[in-house]
Amino acid sequence: xxxxxxxxxxxxxxxxxxxxxxxxxxxxxxxxxxxxxxxxxxxxxxxxxxxxxxxxxxxxxxxxxxxxxxxxxxxxxxxxxxxxxxxxxxxxxxxxxxxxxxxxxxxxxxxxxxxxxxxxxxxxxxxxxxxxxxxxxxxxxxxxxxxxxxxxxxxxxxxxxxxxxxxxxxxxxxxxxxxxxxxxxxxxxxxxxxxxxxxxxxxxxxxxxxxxxxxxxxxx
Length: 220
What we know:
The protein is an alpha/beta fold. It has nine helices and six strands, in the order βαααααβαβαβαββα. Strands 3-2-1-4-5-6 form a six-stranded parallel sheet, sandwiched between helices. Helix 1 packs across helix 4.
């Protein structure tokens, strides 16, 4: 029986993937990567979704053959990202409605994300959601990022539930893999930036949070 709902953050709660891509493009441009020559395959793009930013930077530094440390690139990218996010972050459709629905049915809720504590706190504060998510797992809380299941195992533990009692709301194949390895159920939300990615390992696939009903969850 499902008793807990675990939200991912990026492109489940907020429209951040586009901003992450823009910030990454801008920082790599500073290191000589010409934007008209950026040609990431759909397979590579899909493999990056859901991962911690520092892990994404390690992969892209190798891909672009840049002579800089992941930490250096990551720090500069974060500066750019937060400048963009300050004015451009928005809640995605169905976020507040789904939270209201789950609260009415007494589901415990948490956020478990590859995002930093800083970003999660910014989002929850900006959109007045802090009081609704007392349990949060961020990039700093885990040793291994998605697709490793650690992030969702820890979220279930914080909710004082078994992973099998939780459903994860995800948009990325790496996140789905993490949720399923943890022993959770998973509802996937289609991602507009990499529509071709394989989300078939999810228990259910929807277009937005607005499509999720409590009946769907009870049937998982």
